[in-house]
Amino acid sequence: MGKKELKRKMAAGMLILSILGTFAGFPETTQTVYAEEIGLPAETNTSFSKARELEFGVSMAGTFAPNDSRRYYKFSLSQASRLDLGFERTGRQENIKITIFDSTQTEIYSLSRSYGLSFSLDAIYLTGGDYYLLVEEAYNAAFSFIVNMDSAGESFTETQDSNNDMASDASSISLKKKYKGVLAQNDDIDYYKFQIPSTGKITFNMTNSVSDTIKYGFYDQSMNLAYTNYVRSGYKDTQPVLLKKGTYYLAVAKGDVNSGVGSYTFSIDFAKKISAAPKLKSVKNLSNGSITVTWGSVAGANGYELWYSTKSNFKSGVVKKELSSSVTSVTYYGLAKKKKYYVRVRAYEEINGIKEYGKWSKKKSIVIKK
Q: Which tens digits make up the pLDDT trace of 137-165?
């Protein structure tokens, strides 16, 4: 073997030296000698204190060696963000584990993969703060990865140290304005605080882009629950809720601690409780003991309730009738001739199966003549 060939094989990390011959009666043998492998410079990011700065959007790489199976990285987020990770590795398809820790080195996310030389971890949501990323594998291997980061666009900046995870730290919101929130790996619930100027109906509008069902609840100032519901992932929800004047809290939370992460949007519209009384326009005699009652419509009403009675105080002998909001006239039949009847009407709105009534109209009377 020439000198050039010897140098080439040594540079490749292995020298094979073959000796052929017969020695002292033994058969012909071949002996192979391996040269020591030439390694790359040792990596130093082997602990939290030596973590390497992670750069978003660019390729980063590392290697594992016997008894050296951990690589630490550190990064910071100024606000709630979405991370997408893409990994590639060489060598045997052994188990690889990805773990994210917060600034106190508390684990908040972990996932293991035991197959595939390349894989991705998408839609990891974190609040603002300082973090560590740990990559572990028990076998000699090389790996590379890219971490892409996008702001989640939350209306109120949340970090590990400053957030709205408790009612006492609720974010103040206004009626008739749209907001965006995020539920993250380290953020299970958000609180918001708002004022209702007078008794009335709020309409809660929510779009759930979280990867799982989320729940919400409205609470009064003493944290008594007024209303609660769920919204499935990818769905919109619109719910009317009747509230009195005062201070209220809205809580938005994951279905459970293992539920999905992502963003949601919401707004709260408000309309005063119906108080206007319909105008009772006319009560007219028809033939055969019948009358027609006509009234004016009331904005926001879901329907109307009419009463008639032979008593002016409506304390007895009352006949009640409910009609939809599109009806402003009704005819009654079979009334007693020469009898005097009193009529009045009021509007109502229906919220979550409960009817809330407005004021009564002025009453009118009529004597059945025909």
A: 867 788 999 999 999 999 999 999 999 99
Query: Which candidate, 251, 254, 250, places its Cα nearest to that of 210?
Result: 254
**Which of 164-173, 236-245, 269-278, 283-292 is most confident?**
164-173
Tell me which of 3.20.20.190, 3.30.1520.10, 3.40.47.10, 2.60.120.380 is the CATH number of domain 48-151. Answer: 2.60.120.380
**CA gap 266, 176 in Å, rounded:** 10
Give the angle subtended at the CA of 139 by the CAs of 134 and 141, to the nearest 5°.
Answer: 75
Written as one string, the DSSP assignment of 310-370 is SSTT-SSS-EEEEEETT--EEEE--PPTT-EEEEEEEEEEEETTEEEEEEEPPPEEEE---
Same CATH fold, 167-272 and 48-151? yes
Report the predicted TM-score, pTM, of the whole model to 2 decimal places: 0.74
First-to-last alpha carbon distance for the chain, in angstroms, is 131
Give the containing element (helix H, strand E) for 90. strand 81-90
Rg of the chain (C-alpha set) = 38
